[in-house]
Design brief:
Blueprint lengths: L24 E2 L28 H4 L4 H6 L1 E6 L8 E2 L5 E2 L1 H12 L3 E6 L2 H10 L4 E2 L13 E15 L14 E5 L3 H16 L6 E5 L2 H9 L5 E5 H10 L5 E17 L4 H15 L1 H8 L18
Parallel strand pairs: 2-5, 2-6, 8-9, 8-10
Antiparallel strand pairs: 1-5, 3-4, 7-10, 7-11
Helix pairs in contact: 3-8, 3-9
């Protein structure tokens, strides 16, 4: 995870304490600089992927939303590359480009409103937001409060230098960079290290950094042997470093990201159909590839697809 994000992935990921809630603010009224990032090189803005309104899908949108012409989206940032601010203060990212295409397919204009992460689902329940877009993991516990439309699969992914391969399942005695307080820092690597010492092998040296960019640079510069992070974060770091890092094995401990909507709302089916359309046209793959997160693409979105 990036910056001081609260726990987006339930028990799977970041363990930082959620900050006290702040009022939701329309993005048009916010001014901000670049938010925390993960990667070792300069980032250029990916091209925009256009999408057109599909009448048959747009007609399924609940009347209150359709008549307003807007899709009110609750978002918490930063979480690069999914949602963060560029130097001008504009909210950008994989999630943003995908939601923009979803809204266009539905014939709606997205209106992004910042909120504390912990307040997004309650605001959806109250009808303040139509949908949430903050890399929520779809969990069975959360499904008791809202419905989810799955759109991505995220887990843990390692990266290493091309000339120094490392096996995530056999990293005893190696130095592995992580962002402090992430799942990888508190759960994954300590468990792997204990397995090493229990087998009489050297422990994994967990090298902690406050930000993901520093963790990534440590691998690039040879200060550590590898890095471990959430799969979209690692994929973005690989993309940013322009060949200086490659993936070590495949993503593991996967769980679905989903867009939360009000329980029982027909908007869930509208979002699902819109994403199915973008998958069919190739726009979904293009957006994911632009942001270097194609490893997490799914074949078919579902409503309430929690695995735990």
């Amino acid at each position: 995870m990036l910056g001081d994000c609260p726990n987006r992935r339930g028990r799977f990921r970041r363990l930082a304490v959620v900050i006290a809630a702040v009022g939701a603010l329309a993005i048009s009224g916010c001014a901000s600089g670049t938010e925390g990032g993960g990667g070792g090189g300069a980032t250029s803005q990916p091209p925009t992927v256009s999408a057109q309104k599909v009448e048959s899908i747009a007609n399924t949108v609940p009347e209150a939303i359709k008549s307003s012409g807007k899709l009110i989206v609750g978002v918490n940032i930063p979480y690069k590359p999914n949602e963060f601010k560029d130097p001008s203060g504009k909210i950008v990212g994989f999630d943003v480009d995908l939601m923009n295409a979803i809204a266009a397919t539905l014939g709606l204009t997205p209106e992004y409103r910042e909120a504390d992460f912990a307040m997004i689902i309650p605001a959806i329940q109250e009808g303040t937001f139509d949908v949430g877009m903050s890399s929520f993991t779809d969990t069975k516990e959360r499904e008791e409060s809202v419905d989810f439309v799955t759109y991505f699969s995220a887990g843990t992914l390692w990266a290493h230098r091309p000339d120094a391969p490392i096996d995530p399942n056999d990293a005893c005695g190696k130095k592995v960079a992580v962002q402090a307080t992430t799942f990888q820092d508190t759960d994954e690597l300590p468990a792997k290290s204990r397995a090493c010492t229990d087998a009489g092998k050297p422990a994994i040296e967990i090298v902690r950094f406050d930000g993901q960019d520093a963790a990534t640079n440590a691998v690039v510069l040879g200060q550590t042997d590898a890095m471990s992070a959430d799969s979209p974060v690692t994929s973005w770091a690989i993309k940013e470093t322009n060949g200086r890092l490659i993936a070590a094995g495949e993503m593991f401990d996967a769980a679905p990201y989903g867009w939360p909507v009000q329980k029982g709302s027909a908007l869930a089916q509208s979002l699902q159909m819109a994403l199915e359309h973008l998958i069919e046209t190739g726009a979904y793959q293009e957006i994911a590839s632009n942001w270097g997160v194609e490893r997490g693409m799914i074949d078919k979105p579902v409503v309430n697809g929690a695995v735990s």
